[in-house]
Amino acid sequence: MVDLARVQKELHECNRDVQVSGINVTLKGDSLTHLIGTIPGPIGTPYEGGTFKIDITLTDGYPFEPPKMRFATKVWHPNISSQSGAICLDILKDQWSPALTLKTALLSIQALLSAPEPDDPQDAVVAQQYLKDHQTFVGTARYWTETFAKTCAAEEKIQKLVEMGFPEAHVRSTLEATGWDENLALEKLLSS
Amino acid sequence: MASESESATTEASSFIENLTNSRNIDLSLFLPFILAFTNNSSISSTPVQDSSNPDQQTQEQTTPSEFLDRIILVNPLTQGMVVIESRSSSSFDSLLSELMRKEGQPPASQASIEALQSVEICEEGEKGECAICLDELRVGGVVKEMPCKHRFHGDCVEKWLKIHGSCPICRYKMPEEDGDLNNKSENRGRRREIWISFSFQTASANSNSENEHDHASEV
User: Per its UniProt record, what PANTHER family does this chain match (chain A) (predicted)?
Assistant: First the structure.
């Protein structure tokens, strides 16, 4: 049986300092065993500016067993499967400890984004590219961040402004013109 | 032909690298493609030698009389194939579970768990949080103290130490049960895997079947 009291405490604790850590955990549905974590791409990496969603499933053994975590957002990284989002990280496997929490596990994943370990790859193709053609790797990782880790936020912004009664095409072009700054775009839309 | 053979070998080695490097082999990739499983003395008597690993060869020769469990797994997507052999008399299930088991610090010995000190929290300054359930360690409550001085609720830490014998906070290693240790190292020595890569493409079926043959004779 999952220790629900502990999970609730964790959620409370994690969402209290979301402004500082940038790490967020929310319920996926009604149950406390399916959660969505979000981590900001670390600054100074090809993942900067992206918001990455992590699918979290808690097994009955939690916290004595590690949470099952996988990237729901596509990401180009040697230790993350570009196909399935599976993560190769020891603390999510044999190095798990019950003193770790969802938040610390997500922080570790964020650290993994900053410091790939190509010698222990999850995705062999990405790892090969990382080692042999680093320039291309950085380019691809950045492109994937732009394409997959930012669209969600962009779509949400568009949705918000469309709901205010602005035509979608206009909203999109205005947002693009203002560098996806919601407030600037709103001002512009109101003044036009 | 030579270059094709070479590319096949490279492919095989990168595939092997990928799988052997990952900390636990994801067997679920292969499960739908299990071709054969044998526990058969006639097969075990076939001399199987891995030219790339003389150690394993020696091992084969020193224990010729034991049974071999052999599983052949094929993944058509990566065109990889693995033959897993085990010299134990274990069943298919236990072999699979052995392969898939997540390793880590083995459980602490029963004696060492029983020997954990019980400590009563008597001062305000001593109270804190049990890192396992995140509940309070209350003043007046009795908690268990590990040799590394980290404290937890008795139930919490005992449950953990029966799974992995390390401190949740600092990974201090608890003594292991002796018997378990021996069994485990024996099991490890008994397993071997042979990796083969081949292509399913029909256009180059001839040359590839030769490749396969080359590998087979090497193996």
Answer: UBIQUITIN-CONJUGATING ENZYME E2
For A27-40, b/e burial (b = at least 16 CB within 10 A) is eeeeebbebebbbb
The answer to whether the beta carbons of residues B84 and B70 sit under 8 Å apart is yes
The answer to whether the CB atoms of B169 and A99 lie below 8 A apart is yes
What digits encode the pLDDT tens for the residues A58-116?
999 999 999 999 999 999 999 999 999 999 999 999 999 999 999 999 999 999 999 99
- Cα distance between residue A68 and residue A37, in whole Å: 12
Contact indicator for A66, B24 with CB cutoff of 8 Å: no
Contacts of B8 (CB under 8 A, 6+ apart): B197, B198, B199, B208, B211
Comparison of pLDDT for B80 and B188, the residue scoring more: B80
DSSP state, residue B108: B
> CB–CB of A88 and B104 under 8 A?
no
- From residue A25, give the alpha-carbon distance in Å to each of A8, B131, B147: 11, 20, 35
Q: Which residue in chain A has the smallest CA separation from B14?
A: A124
- Chain B positions touching A63 (Cβ under 8 A) are 132-133
Peptide bond between residue A63 and the one before it cis (omega within 30 degrees of 0): yes
H or E stretch at B182:
helix B178-189
Report pLDDT digits (tens) over B80-128. 676 666 554 445 555 555 454 557 889 999 999 999 999 988 887 777 8
* C-beta atoms surrounding B166 within 10 Å: 22
CB proximity B160 to A under 8 Å: yes
DSSP lists the bridge partners of residue B176 as B108
**Does residue A121 sit at the B interface (CB-CB below 8 Å)?**
yes
| A165-181 CB burial, b ≥16 within 10 A, e <16 | ebeeeebbebbeebeee
pTM, 2 dp: 0.62
**Nearest CA to B17 among B195, B170, B211, B201?**
B195
Chain A nearest C-alpha distance from B74 (Å): 18
The two beta strands, B151-152 and B142-145, are antiparallel
Interface ipTM? 0.77
Query: In b/e form, how buried is each residue of A43-58, taking b as 16+ CB within 10 angstroms?
Result: eebbbebbbbbbbbeb
Q: Are B63 and B48 in contact (CB under 8 A)?
A: no
